[in-house]
Structures are given as C-alpha cells and as structure tokens.
Amino acid sequence: MRAAPKTGRLSVLLLGVAVWMVPAQVLAQSNVTLPQPFNVSLAAVNHTLPSNSLPPLATAAPAIVPANTSSHWEPIPHYKHPHYDGTGKVLWFPRIVGGAPATHGEFPAMVSLQLVRSSAHVCGGTLLTMAHVLTAAHCVTDVRGVPHPAAQFQVMADDLRLPPHTGNPTVQVRPVRSVTVHPQYDAATIANDIAIARVASDFRKTETLFPGKRVQRAPTLGDRCSLAGWGVTDERSTTMSPTLQRINVVISDFGTCSALFGNVLTAGMLCAGAPGRDACQGDSGGALLCSGGRVAGIVSFGAGCAVPDVPGVYVDVTHYEKWINGALRNGGEGRRVGGSVVAGVLVLFWIVKNLTM
C-alpha cells in the first residue's frame, strides 16, 4: 500500500467512507474543530479536541488524484470529513451541498438512521417495506467493516426536521432489531457498500410515508435522478440545516468516472453528479432516485465537495437485487447483528425515553 503523497498543502487519501482532499497540516495541527453528531441542541456547538484524541480516519488505500485536477485544487473543509470515535463508531458523515428544501411527502421512503441514546442523525436510509431500511454498509459498521450492535440504532420517519418538529403528529420512530451487512462488504475499498436494517415493529403507512419501489434496470448515461438528505445548504457553510434538502443529478459515464478514481470502481457501483452538486450529494446511505422516483442507488462516496467534473459514487441497487430479496425474506446472507441481552436493555431504554418525552 502506497502512502498518500504530500504536496505541501494537500494529502490525498481514500478513506473508508469517501475520497476526500485532506490538507496535510490539518492532520498534524494540535487542535481541530470538529462537528458534533447532528442534533439541533448541539448544532451550533463546536468541540475542540487535542490531536491525540482526533477521531481516526479509516484505512487509507493507494492515493488517487482525479486526472483533471491540479495541486491548486481547494481541499474540502475538515468539518465535512467523515469522523469516527476512538472505537471506530461513526460520529458524522458529509451532507448535501447545493440543495433546496424538500416538501413533506416529496420523499416518502426517506428515513433518518440515528443513535438511540442521543437521537443523533448518522445516515440516511430508504424504506423497502414498512419494516426494512436500505442503507450503506459503512453507516452501520466500524472502520474495519465490523457491524455495530443493532440496538445502537433507531430510525426516524415521516418528518422533514432533525430532531422531529415539536407536536408533529406524523413523525414515527422505531428501534432497530437487526442489521444485515453484505457478506463481501470491504471497508478499505468500499465495495459492496450495502446493508438492510430491520426495525422492531412496522412503521405505520401514511400518505407521506410508504416504501420505495426499486428500478427494474440500472440507470444509464444522461438519466436524471434526485436525492435528499439533511445538511448544509452551501459549500462554505459550517451550519447544518435541520430541514431535509434535495438536489438533482445526472448519471455519468462509468468508464470516465472509474478512470477519475484510478480505476478502483467495481461492478455494483454507478456514478452521478451535476455542476456544483457533484460531491457531498447527500447523507451516506440515502437513495439515488431515478425513473420516476424509484430507488436506483445508495449514496456511497465521492471526491472533494462540488469539484467540477468529478461525480459521486453510488451503490447500483440492481446489481444486488438477489441479495436484497433474500435479506427481505429471511435476513439473507451476510454479517447479521441482532438481538441480545444488551439489545433488550437498549430497546427498553428507548421505550422509557419516548414515554417520558
């Protein structure tokens, strides 16, 4: 494995979540301002950590520099990098840039995957049934690719705001009962970045909350698609939007996209982007919607933030149709994490917390 080159102000790393331009001095400085997990009560709070407690980056792979860039490429701000705690548990992922507010019911299958103890938003997800959530494997695993206990997570649905709008009668929250990660998920290469979470009890179907349908064929070059997520509305902003945002993107040529990423892309991936919206497109795990709003992809990783001509990379859902169907029927083949004594305690904690709200 080659170390990432240092070119004065830039260091290029392939992280376990995304390919980002990382200034070398950021990793070496003694204090770095990091975001909290997304929570409205903490949204404006920055936390300064000493260098020895900086959340570790995921395993680096051979350095990749998009072919049409130069050493003057402005790196993505550090606050938009994915972060993990000392144990490898996910803290925060990049968010949408260049989006517009979504309307209630516009993305009826969109959900927020959250941590139970704090209700902090971790990743996006998509309802495939009223009990199953499609998301990215990196959202529910540590930097080694090992699944986190399912009981650490809950799913919020049918609300545009984080946390849910006070008094909103439509919002629904469910604890996660089990998580199935694709058996060939590779945290180093981000291959097979797909997982399905099963909630403890079915969501209630409404006019603004119901499962998404999947495309019958993979989208092709030039197809117009959309996606949504909770996040910043401007690339230079450091403030998270508590309201769901949406953007439109266009499917890119896979061969050209793969070349930009050093030909590391594999079967089961597809690329999409748009000027000013070609990276940081949305919460990891959220759906890429094409062909009349059908689920075609899962937000996986990208390069930089709104870097021209460098699209984002998504999981191609059609490539995993057989695996998805198996997981929906009986848990399917994969690394599955489900119930235990600890899970029971955390579910009880979730019930008590919600009864006392």
Relevant terms:
single chain; 357 residues; Thrombin, subunit H; 20 strands; globular; 4 helices; seven-stranded antiparallel beta sheet
Care to describe what's here?
The chain is mainly beta. Among the domains are: 110-199, Thrombin, subunit H, CATH 2.40.10; 223-317, Thrombin, subunit H (Beta Barrel), CATH 2.40.10. 10% of the residues lie in helices and 29% in strands. It contains four helices and 20 strands. The chain has helices at residues 24-28, 254-260, 321-330, 341-355; strands at 11-14, 19-22, 31-35, 46-50, 83-84, 90-92, 100-101, 110-115, 121-127, 132-135, 153-157, 172-181, 195-199, 224-230, 244-251, 269-273, 287-290, 294-301, 312-316, 335-337. Strands 7, 14, 15, 16, 17, 18 and 19 form a seven-stranded antiparallel β-sheet that branches. A six-stranded antiparallel barrel has the order 8-9-10-13-12-11. Residues 1-84, 278-282 and 339-349 have low confidence and may be disordered.
